[in-house]
Amino acid sequence: MLNWQHYPNFYTKEAVVERTRWNRDQEKVLYWGVSYGTFIGVSLAAMFPDRVERVLLDSVLLPSAYHNGSWVANLQDTDAILDTFCEYCHQSGPENCPFYQGGGPLEIKEAFNLVHDQIWKDPLPIRATGSSGPDVITWSDLKALVKDAVYHPIDRFPHMAKSLRGLLERDGTLLAEWKARSGTVTIATSREGLHCFANRCLKSEPYAPESQSPNEWQDEIQAAIFCTDGHGMEGMTKDAFKGYWKLLQNQSSLIGDLWAEYRLMCQGWDLRPTWRYDGPYAAETAHSILLGGNTIDPVTPIANAHAVAAKFPGSAVFEQRGVGHELLTSPSECTDGVIRRYFQYGELPESGKLCEVTQVPFDPTSRGLGY
After folding, report:
1. Distance (Å, rounded) from C-alpha 31 to C-alpha 40?
2. Which of 177-186, 197-206, 278-287, 336-345 is predicted with the least confidence, judged by mean pLDDT?
3. What number is the average pLDDT over the span 65-92?
4. 27, 115, 130, 314 — which has fewest CB within 10 A?
5. What is the DSSP string of 10-31?
6. Which burial class, exposed, middle or buried, applies to 11 when counting CB atoms under 10 A from its CB (0-12, 13-18, 19+)?
C-alpha cells in the first residue's frame, strides 16, 4: 500500500469522481499486456495514442518480427536459462535439487547434455501401468519438458530436475506421467480427449465438451491467431524452411527446434483479417508507457522492451532480476511497487531501474507445482 500522505488529495470524493467520470467516446485505456498481449498493447498505443492513460507491456514481443511472421527476435537469451538451472541446482545442493552433481554447475550441464544425447540415440520405452498405457520417451518429449520448465523456472525446475535424474538412470516414469498430463494425445493418453472411450464420451457427439480434455484445442486456437496476424507465413519451400529451422537452432539449442514448428503450422494458411493494422508501431502517447521484463526470458528478451520503448517517447523500461517468462513468474516487492505506483499515480521508475526478486528456483519455500 502506498503512503497516502504523499498524495493527500488523491482519495478525496471530488478527485475520485473526476478520475472515474465516463467521457463517452473519449474513454482512456488502462492496460496490462503480457507476452502476446504486448503486441496488442503496442498496436493499441500506436493506433490510439490519445487514449493511453496507463499501458504496461510485460515481457515484450518485438512487433516487427511478430508482424512479419519471422519470429526471429525471441530466443536470444533462451539458452542462458540452462546455465541458471545448473547454477541454482548447485547452490541448492542435493537435498533440494535431485539432478545435483558434485562437480558444480559445469558437471550438471555435462550431465544434462549426456541425457540429451542418450535419449536422442536411444528412446526409452515405458511399461503400461494401471492408469496409463505403454509409451516411448523420445528426444522430442525431453525438448517439450525443457520448454515448459524454462517458462516458469520457480514452479517447474524442481520437476525437471527429478525427471532428468530419472532419465540419467534410464527411468522415464516421471516424464511419461508429465507427458500424459500435458495434453499430448499419445497411446498413454488415448483414454481421454480425441480418443476417449469413456461412457461420457461414447454417449455424446464427437466435438461436444464432454468428449474433450481441457485445453485440447489450444494449439489450433493459437495457430489461428498468429498465422492470421503474420505476413507471408504460408507457402515456404522445404529448403527455405530448413534454413529457417537452422537459424532458430543457432539462436537456441534448447527450444529452437520446437520454435520452428510455429512457422510450420502456418503453411497453407491463407486467411487474412478484414481490418488490419500494418504499423508503424510508434507514437507519442497521451501518457508514458511502462515496459518491463526479466533479465533472462526464454522467448521475449529484455532487449525487445528497450527497442519498443525507443519508439514511444517518454516511456520507461525496468528490469526484474529474474528468470522465466513474464514478471509474475518471480515474486518481487520492488516490481509490485513499480507497477502499483504507475497504475495508481502514473509514476515512472528512474532510467535503468533494476528490481531484485525475493525467490529463486529450488528455494525450499517455493510454490513449485510438484508434478
Report:
1. 10
2. 197-206
3. 95
4. 130
5. TTSHHHHHHHT---TT-PPEEE
6. exposed
CB 210 within 8 A of CB 192: no
Alpha-helical (H) ranges within 78-172 are 80-92, 105-121, 139-151, 153-168
CA distance 13 to 170: 67
Average pLDDT for the chain: 87
Q: What is the band of 207 on the pLDDT scale with cuts at 50, 70, 90?
A: low
Enter the C-alpha cell of residue 227: 498465422
CB 92 within 8 A of CB 368: no
pLDDT recorded at residue 187: 35
For residue 108, the model assigns a pLDDT of: 98
- Nine cell digits for residue 256: 529452437
As a 3-state breakdown, the chain gives helix, strand, coil percent values, each rounded to 5, of 45, 10, 45
Residue (of 17, 54, 80) closest to 315 by Cα position: 54
Report the alpha-carbon distance of residue 159 to residue 179 in Å, rounded. 12
Determine which helix (DSSP H) or strand (DSSP E) holds 57, and give its type and residue range.
strand 52-60
Give the Cβ contact number of residue 163 at 10 Å: 29
Q: What one-letter code names the amino acid at 329? A: T
Q: Any idea which residue has 515405458 for its cell?
A: 126
Contact status, residue 292 vs residue 319, Cβ threshold 8 Å? yes
Residues 107, 223: Cα–Cα separation, whole Å = 39
Per DSSP, 189 falls in state G
Average confidence (pLDDT) over 268-285: 90
pTM score: 0.85
Query: Would you state the cell numbers that stand for residue 331, as one nine-digit string?
Result: 515474486
**SS3 of residue 268 by DSSP:** coil
CA distance 362 to 149: 13
Residue 316 bridge partners (DSSP): 290
